[in-house]
Design goal:
Layout (H helix, E strand, L loop, with lengths): L19 H18 L2 E8 L3 H10 L4 E4 L3 H8 L12 H4 L6 E6 L3 H10 L1 E5 L10 E2 L2 E15 L3 E5 L2 E2 L9
Antiparallel strand pairs: 1-3, 1-6, 2-3, 4-6, 5-6, 6-7, 7-8
Helix pairs in contact: 1-3
Length: 176
Amino acid sequence: MPKSKRNRPVTLSKTKKKPGSERKGKVVDDIKKAVDQYSSAYVFTYDNMRNQKLKDLREQLKSSSRIFLAGKKVMQIALGRSPADEAKTGLHKLSKFLQGDSGLFFTNLPRDEVERLFREFEEHDFARTGKAAQTLRLLGIQMATFRLYLVCRWSCDDFEVYKEGLAHLGADDDSC
């Protein structure tokens, strides 16, 4: 008997698929609203992400800022990948820096306050399985450091790229 005629088990349970495009569209809309609502945007990277530590930071900055961690392609689409489809002038430059473990930080805080905040933010926690821990030890247990690093900054009047915490490109530089 051919395979097409054989008895095959039929599942009777129906599962609802997650509406991926609707969820992604909501993130895109939220990022576009944040572009209009906040005066500047930063791309940041992170090491040894801890969900609770990030929640604490979000709660601390709730009144003046917004942090987005989503798929890189989704965030790039929201910002615009080229000057033709960007939400505001110069935003497409940020999308080029969304690589690896990165996120978007929208804020109304002054630039020096944000730089200080990111420079000082460092949390120690237990190292995860399979991850190399830093040299910090607490009672003989290796600890990991959760850090945030600024990559670049955008505001309506300029764009900067950070290298090891220092801004080294201005708005007139087209190397981005």
